[in-house]
Design brief:
The chain is built from eleven helices and 14 strands. The strands form two sheets. Strands 5-4-1-8-9-10-11-12-13-14 form a ten-stranded mixed β-sheet, sandwiched between helices. Strands 3-2-6-7 form a four-stranded mixed β-sheet. Helix 3 runs parallel beside helix 4 and helix 8 runs antiparallel to helix 9. The mean pLDDT is 94. The two termini are 38 Å apart. With 318 residues, the protein is of the alpha/beta class. The radius of gyration is 19 Å and the shape is globular.
Length: 318
């Protein structure tokens, strides 16, 4: 079984406005609500691809109940831990005229120590976890040690661990040597303490992290695709040019695409291509991680794969 863990999920309220005017009333043209959070996004895409999984994490209050209800209606298996606080609501405003989006992210509820222990015990009781994906920010009141603890338990059960987080949580997490991390170039810069811009610097930094114990580093490079660095592997997969209408959940979809490739027996290169295709498919549609199987499979043959010295040339080209 594949499990995703989202400790700080959210209810996304997406609002479309014809033209955002400051210091004036703005009439809403359309509004939608989604269960959101990085791990939830991964579960959504895996479910779309027919890969059995279960979403775990914290939910609380009316918004928490709505998240669970919406996931059930999407056919996504979940088993969330209830908390006393209210699950956060994020606001996403789409300016139709400018074709832009602005995201207002709420902090989320404070998690009590006894509530924190519930999810630790839940992970301890998981049966035969094949892959555990830990994603997103930490809720208020939770120390980054929680990710270290969850990974420690996961590894004791023989599970592979994918970690997709940022800042202190990522710095703490890499000391547990996850099988895969997926930072974007800005998150990788914060992890290393360097301002990474050149592809050689990016590759070198990822190599150092692998040398320290992490299995694979997947670095999101935006329109340039995703760089994969392993113990001996160096690949860059670049997506085709598409009309981007949304970027929310693209990175999470990429994680799901990589997992899809892994569990369906594809090679590492093919799994990377799947990651790029899934992430790109999400950019074609509004909403969190709403890529479709049709878009995904149509994009796979359009993704270009580079290795060795080709990586630097491709990075400069795109």
């Amino acid at each position: 079984m594949i499990y995703t863990i989202t400790l700080n999920p959210a209810l996304d309220r997406d609002i479309w406005i014809e033209k955002v005017s400051h210091d004036d009333s703005n009439r809403i043209q359309k509004e939608e609500r989604f269960a959101a959070g990085k791990g939830i996004d991964v579960s959504r895409v895996l479910t779309t691809f027919g890969i059995k999984n279960m979403a775990l994490g914290f939910v609380g209050g009316y918004e928490g109940e709505e998240i669970v209800g919406r996931l059930i209606n999407e056919g996504i298996s979940c088993n969330f831990t209830k908390v006393s606080g209210e699950t956060r609501t994020n606001i996403v405003i789409y300016d139709i005229e400018k074709e832009s989006q602005t995201i207002y992210s709420a902090r989320g509820p404070e998690i009590m120590p006894n509530e924190l222990m519930r999810i630790i015990h839940q992970v301890e009781e998981l049966e035969d976890p094949e892959i555990i994906i830990i994603s997103g920010s930490l809720p208020y009141g939770v120390h980054p040690e929680i990710y270290f603890k969850i990974m420690e338990i996961a590894k004791s059960k023989g599970s592979k661990v994918i970690l997709d987080t940022d800042e202190v949580a990522l710095k703490k997490g890499v000391h547990m040597f996850p099988d895969v991390i997926k930072p974007n170039v800005h998150e990788l810069s914060r992890l290393s303490g360097l301002e990474l811009q050149d592809i050689h610097e990016i590759v070198s930094t990822a190599e150092t992290i692998c040398d320290q114990g992490t299995g694979i580093v997947l670095v999101s490079l935006g329109a340039r695709g995703i760089l994969l660095v392993g113990k001996k592997e160096r690949y860059l997969a670049v997506p085709p040019k598409v009309k981007v209408v949304n970027t929310i959940g693209a990175g999470d979809s990429a994680v799901a695409g990589f997992v899809f490739g892994t569990v369906t027996g594809k090679t590492l290169q093919e799994a990377l291509v799947c990651a790029v295709a899934a992430g790109t498919a999400t950019t074609l549609r509004t909403g969190p991680a709403l890529c479709t199987k049709d878009d995904f499979f149509e994009l796979i043959p359009q993704v270009k794969l580079y290795q060795g010295e080709e990586i630097s040339k491709a990075f400069q080209k795109y």
